[in-house]
């Protein structure tokens, strides 16, 4: 079995995973096994599945402990925002996880080491390995440091977990005591492939125009532009 020196990673995260097969398994992408059929380890997909579940519980506990005043629905939105693929991939990049990946030649050529999906899965697999080898508390501390620190507090403070429409409605009610008004400006294209253009106004003033393949998508984009206008003033 191909062995890798993981000491730089262990030093970085201050956690020693002393099961060589377990830590190696974190970085085995399924594509690698297509070219190395006798490789003794499976892909990291089962570890990633476990890590995803552990991460979900960690996030729920963290929110419950640190933000007791928020509603359950807000917990759900914040959780979805902080554990989204891009956030996990960014944490993986910070730790340099991509350099340890075992990939097929095709994935290597397709820049698999910087692929958002692959990195996000790898980060969750690492959480799973830490949980199995060191227990829940160590996994909790790891996630808090490398995924939550600063980022989650910023998400809550700025309400970035809200959809643009929800956020705009909240701001409009706070600042203007009215609700935003959305209006379809245009519909183009055949029934199966329509493009909608929607405007959003607050107190009859135009704040944004969005387009999308559905009314909802166009409204969200219009709301996003309105938020940018409101926050830049």
What is the compact description of this entry?
With 233 residues, this protein is mainly alpha-helical. It folds into 2 domains: 7-158, Ribonuclease iii, N-terminal Endonuclease Domain, Chain A; 164-232, 2-Layer Sandwich (Double Stranded RNA Binding Domain), CATH 3.30.160.20. The chain has helices spanning 7-13, 20-25, 30-35, 45-66, 72-82, 85-95, 105-109, 116-134, 136-148, 151-158, 164-176, 215-232; strands at residues 181-188, 195-202, 205-212.
Give an account of the 3D structure.
With 233 residues, this protein is mainly alpha-helical. It has two domains: 7-158, Ribonuclease III domain (Ribonuclease iii, N-terminal Endonuclease Domain, Chain A, Orthogonal Bundle), CATH 1.10.1520; 164-232, Double Stranded RNA Binding Domain. The chain has helices spanning 7-13, 20-25, 30-35, 45-66, 72-82, 85-95, 105-109, 116-134, 136-148, 151-158, 164-176, 215-232; strands spanning 181-188, 195-202, 205-212. A three-stranded antiparallel sheet has the order 1-2-3, with helices on one face. Helix 6 (85-95) crosses helix 8. The termini are far apart.
């Amino acid at each position: 079995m191909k062995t890798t020196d993981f000491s730089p990673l262990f030093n970085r995260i201050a956690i020693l995973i002393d099961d060589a097969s377990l830590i190696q398994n974190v970085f085995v992408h399924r594509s690698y096994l297509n070219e190395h059929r006798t490789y003794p380890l499976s892909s990291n997909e089962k570890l990633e599945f476990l890590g995803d579940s552990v991460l979900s519980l960690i996030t729920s506990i963290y929110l419950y402990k640190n933000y007791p005043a928020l509603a359950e629905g807000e917990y759900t939105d914040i959780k979805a925002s902080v554990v989204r693929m891009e956030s996990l991939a960014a944490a993986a990049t910070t730790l340099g996880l991509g350099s340890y990946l075992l990939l097929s030649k095709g994935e290597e050529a397709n820049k698999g080491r910087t692929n958002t999906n692959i990195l996000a899965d790898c980060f969750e697999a690492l959480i799973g390995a830490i949980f199995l080898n060191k227990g829940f508390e160590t996994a909790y501390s790891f996630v808090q440091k490398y995924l939550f620190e600063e980022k989650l507090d910023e998400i809550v403070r700025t309400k970035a977990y809200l959809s643009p429409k929800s956020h705009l409605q909240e701001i409009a009610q706070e600042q203007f005591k009215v609700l935003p008004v959305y209006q379809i400006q245009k519909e183009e294209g055949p029934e199966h492939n329509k493009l909608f253009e929607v405007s959003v106004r607050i107190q009859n003033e135009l704040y944004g125009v969005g387009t999308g393949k559905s009314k909802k998508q166009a409204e969200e984009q219009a709301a996003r532009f309105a938020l940018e206008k409101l926050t830049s003033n």
